UniProtKB/TrEMBL annotation, chains A, B:
Residues 157-316 form the PurM-like C-terminal domain. Belongs to the thiamine-monophosphate kinase family. Keywords: ATP-binding, Kinase, Magnesium, Metal-binding, Nucleotide-binding, Thiamine biosynthesis, Transferase. It comes from Desulfococcus multivorans DSM 2059. This is Thiamine-monophosphate kinase. It catalyses: thiamine phosphate + ATP = thiamine diphosphate + ADP. Mg(2+) 1 binds at residues 49-50, 127. Substrate binds at residues 57, 273, 329. Mg(2+) 2 binds at residues 50, 79. Its EC number is 2.7.4.16. It holds the Pfam family AIRS_C.
């Protein structure tokens, strides 16, 4: 059955049941002119939105619909995580080409609903329409945070310790396998593919960092560590110095780089779509925060460098200091992103 | 210059200055992982979103970018109006094909910012990316409303008076001119085109109705009066009876229908994209509400029929009662919507 056979309203009736995951605080779910819900007392609302376009961000025949739905929601949850917030309500707009099977669209929702359930997020509305050729998904997520716990990109100070909440580079390695149709013939490669297809938003980690009171700036790693750190540095009027030897590089990425002769540090610095968080921490509190993080999450908050007053983006590797270019995703300067 | 020449971040820097229209209550505008803002004390948040796809909802070469930007925002503001709410923050996702001129995209924002300024709405974020072929715009709007003043689709009761806040059918007439490349050779036809391109969201009217305490159900007319009234009737478990003689049909639409031999009542019932509000009102309060509306807006709240307990959708015309079909927009059952 194709999507157009049941139409917009038929489809909404099919999917709306599973979308209300946390009814408390919801005044109107899917089905009216707008959704209505409360923002918890004393908190500010956070809103982020991401648009995924077939052929630019994903290939329909190279991505399972569940993975696509997972990722479309996960990238937005990651933005809420980077603000130190709690994700609460999601809105899904989807434009479906005439040749797209109903089962594929339902699979997208299955992937989203599964992830939404994990993080207590409701799907409260959106828009469903046709498209001439490409499948388009826009997800907007509303979160909430106490203003004093909100994490901004700016606000870093010289001497702040620079941390990341997880390994970087795995997603880019997964994308390399996908793009070059290389077989995922080991657990390591399967996990790299999974890092690319099903990133885990670091919402609990973001809440922890926001509540710590010691984090001065934070961002999620979507465009690539080096690109995203440029945003933090610019917003704070500072430079960044990364210690290459401290970058968290997974065993899977090491295996991958050995096999294909790639430089793992390069993958870690410029790989995009990791969706871990980077943050700068008051150096007098950094050790305590890192220790509490380890106790809570059972892996380190990785200390990868520091913020500097010189305005330069540098990486120290083998005693040598070199500038790093913000080489990550560029939607318009690369003609083909995938 | 083409859009890809300045890239996503260059474009954001160009447009962000004009986007903060009402700084009060905004904690973080465009530029961080998410926008942050307050929802006024004691009010619930409203969110609505609409996705516009080139070739389905608009033709790039048949629409000025300012009109496209105006409409993309207006259709969302209209949904907030239909809830009785105040529109506050907008989020704009846009996917731009490589051949799209930067000037066109800037024109879209000009149209949005102009309308946003009229209604005190901020543009606080969004996403900007590439597209293989079609221009895609998704707008999400956050509003707020006191829960006791919120207008739902359900909640109508048998005997409720049915009103609309303005003329219906003009937008469809404008679309007919556009589709058939007919010259807009009179003020009447220019105004019909304008009704199609630059609908005015009835936000003040929606607030008035919400505060009246007499409105039991409301919806905005986007799919067409008959289609949208089916939503109200279904949500309330009722029927609708429309008095054709009372439909507000503009002089412009009458002129248009005389010229081309169309039935103005048919245009009024099944035309889409009028973006006026329809509401059902407690019959004991209807006269007072209509009188106050006239005093405030200097034109009638048009009394077009009533809600019935028989579950039927009927129109009375020339003493005859006939069922009306929900003939409005259908994104998937029509292969070509434009």
């Amino acid at each position: 059955m194709e999507f157009k056979d049941i139409g917009e309203f038929g489809f909404i009736r099919r999917i709306q049941r599973g979308c209300l995951i946390r009814p408390e605080g919801v005044r109107l779910p899917i089905g009216d002119d707008a959704a209505a819900f409360i923002v918890p007392d004393g908190q500010v609302a956070l809103v982020t939105t991401d648009l995924l376009v077939e052929g630019v961000h994903f290939l329909r025949n190279g991505t399972s619909p569940e993975d696509l739905g997972h990722k479309a929601l996960a990238v937005n949850l990651s933005d809420i995580a980077a603000m130190g917030g709690t994700a609460r309500e999601a809105f899904v707009s989807i434009a479906v080409p005439g040749d797209c099977a109903l089962a594929y669209v339902e699979g997208i929702y299955r992937g989203m609903i599964s992830l939404a359930g994990e993080f207590g997020v409701n799907i409260l509305g959106g828009d469903t329409t046709g498209s001439r050729s490409d499948l388009i998904i826009n997800v907007a997520v509303v979160g909430a945070v106490h203003e004093r716990e909100m994490l901004r990109r700016g606000g870093a100070r010289p001497g702040d310790c620079l941390f990341v909440t997880g390994a970087v580079g795995d997603s880019r390695a997964g994308l390399h396998l996908l793009r070059n149709r290389l077989p995922a013939d080991s657990d390591a490669f399967m996990e790299l593919l999974s890092a690319h297809h099903r990133p885990r938003p670091h919402l609990a980690e973001g809440r922890f960092l926001g509540k710590s009171g010691a984090v001065r700036a934070a961002i999620d790693i979507s465009d690539g560590l080096s690109s995203d750190l440029v945003h933090v540095a610019r917003a704070s009027g500072l430079g960044v110095r990364i210690d290459a030897g401290r970058l968290p590089i997974s065993e899977n990425l090491k295996t991958f780089c050995r096999r294909f002769g790639f430089d793992a540090v390069d993958y870690a610095l410029s790989g995009g779509e990791d969706y871990v968080l980077a943050c700068t921490v008051d150096p007098t509190k950094a050790a305590a925060v890192a220790q509490a993080f380890m106790a809570r999450f059972h892996h380190p908050l990785y200390h990868i460098g520091k913020m500097t007053s010189d305005g330069r983006m540098t990486v120290v590797q083998g005693g040598e200091v070199r500038p790093f270019p913000p080489a990550g995703w560029r939607h318009f300067s690369e003609t083909e992103e995938l």
